[in-house]
Amino acid sequence: MKHFFRLLASSPALAGILLHGYTAFVMHEGYSYLSWKIFLYSCFSYVICWTIAALINPLAGFFGALAALIDDMIVFHDVFIAPTHSTAPISLLFAPMANLILFVPVGLFIGWCVDRGGRAYRSRRPT
Predict the structure, then answer these.
(1) pTM for the full predicted model
(2) Exposure of 100 by Cβ count < 10 A (0-12 exposed, 13-18 middle, 19+ buried)?
(3) How many Å separate Cα 28 from the centre of its chain?
(4) Distances (CA, A) of 65 to 14, 49, 102, 104, 114
(5) Helix, strand or coil for residue 20?
(6) What do you get for the CA distance between the two ends of the chain, in Å?
(7) Which of 8, 9, 81, 103 is deepest in the core (most CB within 10 A)?
(8) DSSP state letter for 86
(9) pLDDT tens digits, residue range 50-64?
Protein backbone atom coordinates (compact mmCIF):
# COMPACT_ATOMS: atom_id res chain seq x y z
CA MET A 1 0.00 0.00 0.00
CA LYS A 2 2.90 2.32 0.71
CA HIS A 3 4.14 1.99 -2.88
CA PHE A 4 0.70 2.97 -4.16
CA PHE A 5 0.84 6.23 -2.20
CA ARG A 6 4.32 6.96 -3.52
CA LEU A 7 3.07 6.34 -7.06
CA LEU A 8 0.01 8.50 -6.44
CA ALA A 9 2.21 11.23 -5.00
CA SER A 10 4.28 11.35 -8.16
CA SER A 11 1.28 11.78 -10.48
CA PRO A 12 1.15 15.63 -10.34
CA ALA A 13 4.88 15.72 -11.07
CA LEU A 14 4.41 13.46 -14.07
CA ALA A 15 1.47 15.57 -15.28
CA GLY A 16 3.57 18.73 -14.96
CA ILE A 17 6.46 17.22 -16.90
CA LEU A 18 4.05 16.12 -19.62
CA LEU A 19 2.50 19.61 -19.72
CA HIS A 20 5.91 21.20 -20.16
CA GLY A 21 6.86 18.64 -22.78
CA TYR A 22 3.70 19.48 -24.69
CA THR A 23 4.38 23.19 -24.34
CA ALA A 24 8.03 22.95 -25.38
CA PHE A 25 7.84 20.45 -28.22
CA VAL A 26 4.29 20.33 -29.58
CA MET A 27 3.07 23.91 -29.19
CA HIS A 28 6.45 25.31 -30.21
CA GLU A 29 6.88 25.39 -33.96
CA GLY A 30 10.18 23.93 -35.01
CA TYR A 31 13.03 22.41 -33.06
CA SER A 32 15.58 24.47 -31.23
CA TYR A 33 18.17 24.02 -28.53
CA LEU A 34 16.40 26.70 -26.51
CA SER A 35 13.25 24.58 -26.25
CA TRP A 36 15.27 21.85 -24.52
CA LYS A 37 16.74 24.36 -22.08
CA ILE A 38 13.33 25.80 -21.25
CA PHE A 39 11.89 22.30 -20.88
CA LEU A 40 14.60 21.23 -18.43
CA TYR A 41 14.36 24.53 -16.56
CA SER A 42 10.60 24.11 -16.24
CA CYS A 43 10.80 20.50 -15.05
CA PHE A 44 13.34 21.13 -12.29
CA SER A 45 10.71 21.89 -9.64
CA TYR A 46 8.85 18.69 -10.53
CA VAL A 47 12.03 16.64 -10.25
CA ILE A 48 12.57 18.07 -6.77
CA CYS A 49 9.01 17.17 -5.75
CA TRP A 50 9.30 13.72 -7.30
CA THR A 51 12.50 13.07 -5.36
CA ILE A 52 10.94 14.25 -2.11
CA ALA A 53 7.87 12.10 -2.74
CA ALA A 54 9.98 9.03 -3.47
CA LEU A 55 12.54 9.36 -0.70
CA ILE A 56 11.26 11.49 2.16
CA ASN A 57 7.57 12.32 2.37
CA PRO A 58 4.97 11.35 -0.26
CA LEU A 59 2.39 13.90 0.87
CA ALA A 60 4.85 16.77 0.83
CA GLY A 61 5.98 15.85 -2.68
CA PHE A 62 2.36 15.50 -3.80
CA PHE A 63 1.31 18.91 -2.52
CA GLY A 64 4.48 20.60 -3.79
CA ALA A 65 3.99 19.22 -7.29
CA LEU A 66 0.28 19.98 -7.16
CA ALA A 67 0.95 23.64 -6.31
CA ALA A 68 3.44 23.90 -9.18
CA LEU A 69 1.02 22.14 -11.55
CA ILE A 70 -1.81 24.53 -10.69
CA ASP A 71 0.46 27.50 -11.36
CA ASP A 72 1.65 26.01 -14.64
CA MET A 73 -1.90 25.26 -15.78
CA ILE A 74 -2.89 28.87 -15.08
CA VAL A 75 0.12 30.10 -17.07
CA PHE A 76 -0.68 27.67 -19.91
CA HIS A 77 -4.24 29.00 -20.03
CA ASP A 78 -3.07 32.61 -19.97
CA VAL A 79 -0.51 32.08 -22.73
CA PHE A 80 -2.09 29.61 -25.15
CA ILE A 81 -5.84 29.46 -24.56
CA ALA A 82 -6.87 32.99 -23.62
CA PRO A 83 -3.96 35.41 -24.04
CA THR A 84 -4.78 38.89 -22.83
CA HIS A 85 -1.81 40.76 -24.29
CA SER A 86 1.22 40.25 -26.48
CA THR A 87 3.67 39.90 -23.60
CA ALA A 88 1.90 36.87 -22.09
CA PRO A 89 4.57 34.37 -23.29
CA ILE A 90 7.11 36.02 -21.00
CA SER A 91 5.32 34.30 -18.14
CA LEU A 92 6.57 30.98 -19.53
CA LEU A 93 10.05 32.06 -18.44
CA PHE A 94 9.09 33.39 -15.02
CA ALA A 95 6.61 30.69 -13.94
CA PRO A 96 9.28 28.03 -13.25
CA MET A 97 11.16 30.49 -11.06
CA ALA A 98 7.96 31.30 -9.19
CA ASN A 99 7.41 27.56 -8.78
CA LEU A 100 10.86 27.07 -7.29
CA ILE A 101 10.76 30.09 -5.02
CA LEU A 102 7.12 30.29 -3.95
CA PHE A 103 4.70 27.54 -4.92
CA VAL A 104 6.76 24.39 -4.34
CA PRO A 105 7.99 25.40 -0.85
CA VAL A 106 4.45 26.39 0.19
CA GLY A 107 3.09 23.11 -1.17
CA LEU A 108 5.84 21.12 0.54
CA PHE A 109 5.05 22.83 3.84
CA ILE A 110 1.32 22.15 3.48
CA GLY A 111 2.00 18.51 2.64
CA TRP A 112 4.35 18.18 5.59
CA CYS A 113 1.71 19.68 7.92
CA VAL A 114 -0.97 17.33 6.57
CA ASP A 115 1.35 14.36 7.05
CA ARG A 116 2.25 15.39 10.61
CA GLY A 117 -1.42 16.00 11.43
CA GLY A 118 -2.36 12.57 10.10
CA ARG A 119 0.38 10.91 12.10
CA ALA A 120 -0.68 12.74 15.26
CA TYR A 121 -4.30 11.73 14.70
CA ARG A 122 -3.40 8.08 14.14
CA SER A 123 -1.19 7.97 17.23
CA ARG A 124 -3.91 9.39 19.50
CA ARG A 125 -6.77 7.34 18.11
CA PRO A 126 -7.85 4.57 20.47
CA THR A 127 -7.55 1.10 19.04
Answers:
(1) 0.90
(2) middle
(3) 21
(4) 9, 6, 12, 7, 15
(5) helix
(6) 21
(7) 9
(8) T
(9) 999 989 999 999 999
